[in-house]
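Here comes an entry:

___
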Amino acid sequence: MVTDQPADRPAHLPHPAGPPEALPAVPAGDPREDPAWRLATAFVLSRRSAHTRRAYARDIRDFYTWCAQAGLDPLRLRRVHIDAYAHELAQPGPRTGRPAAESTIARKLSTLAGLYAYAVGEDVLDRSPMTGVIRPRTTQDSVSTGLDRDEVAALLSAAAADGTRAHALISLLVHNGLRIDEALSRDVEHLQTERGHQVLRLRRKGGHTATAPLAPPVVHALTVYLAGRTSGPLFSTRTGRRVDEPAAWRLIRRLARRAGLPQADRINPHSLRHTFVTAALDAGVSLRDVQDGAGHRDPRTTRRYDSSRHNLDRHPSYAVSTFYAAGRSTETTGRRDS
């Protein structure tokens, strides 16, 4: 039984020294000697995606904190304890006064299911306490569709007024629909030329590589921002360090408020990815090419044999750029006629 298992069984696990953002809650004393910490850290660092590692670490940190407050050992739990954790998540929180969304609860429980499955696979536990736990059913589709064309124009204007870095980042996100970690993880050296296209070499979710052609407005914004710089992080701070995701979130929220967008407090980097997908479909891009351009992980098997799948000329980034430009031209013409 799980509750009878000794807490020192993960002694065979290595003492990983991962990056700070990938570590779960650190206990008192030497964390490397804490079995639960070593298990969680080994699990987190087994994930290839930095974004996934950070997300898992946050969820495990929250869970370990709850266990500590309840006087529970994470390696001696039963299903009843996980049910109690899920029940507490569904109650109004002390900071927000609102319960966690069902999607949040489902994500946190999914993380724990992975953690304990890893523990069973490594012979740390004989049985997972997640067995039989009922998770909220959530839809895979989001009701959000991002920003409309006028809102994109307002956001880009606010970004241009803020500075060249902000304008380059927002331009890249709305024209190419990148995940925020895909954009921030790139170095200047990943900007290249291929068959006459200015492109950005990407590492997609799951470790897959891809090539994203850059439309002229994005190329111009990046050129102005880099000002001849040829190395280092594509998006860097004044001290030369890579811009991190929390800073990007704060920037986008600040720009959205400056642009006067009504949903400013709800906008995040993924909103701009939704914007790209919606704009591409509105611009008449086929669903297949939109899926390819966004890097969604559900490509048709038969498309592996489609020689035009990787044709840069068909990438939706160009159609999206034209779609945005057409809106600006219409607005300019209307002002001249008035």
